[in-house]
Amino acid sequence: MAAILEKLRIEQTKSRSRHSNDNALAESKNASVVRKHMGFEHIPQKYAQPINAFYQETFNPWLNFHRPCMFATEIISPKGKIIKRYKDEDVKTPLECLVLLSVKDLVTLKEGITLDALQAQAKSKTDLAAAQEMQRAKSELFASFQKQKRRA
Description:
With 152 residues, the chain is mainly α. Helices cover 54% and strands 8% of the residues. It has seven helices and four strands, in the order ααααββββααα. It has helices at residues 2-8, 24-29, 32-38, 48-65, 94-103, 115-123, 127-151, and strands at 69-70, 73-76, 82-85, 91-92. It has a two-stranded antiparallel ribbon with strand order 1-4. Helix 4 runs antiparallel to helix 7 (127-151). The N and C termini lie far apart (67 Å). Residues 21-27 have low confidence and may be disordered.
């Protein structure tokens, strides 16, 4: 009887980050920014080209150069566990974090791309102006979808 029960026993895996290899927390957040702005509905393929243009020209620069994000500070507890703490000084844009990583020689950029060029691109607009431009472009993008629907 014990052999049969042992054969039926299953191993429980934890679906939380740092408790297994599946990195569940990161996977759940991958599309959260995109879904927040685009919605959760299916996007037909005929709209792929204008959406890609919106992301490349407007959304990604705003996201990487102007939108502040929380970056965690990892602290090791007395028990040896890694604890993540989010402090006020950890709020920075992805570009600012990239600059900090490049100081530690942890970054390799593509050929032809420099940090100075990225920082100049970020300084060309204020955070507010970039956010307003992104919202205006997003409104125009969604309005173009509605116009196309009415014609059909």
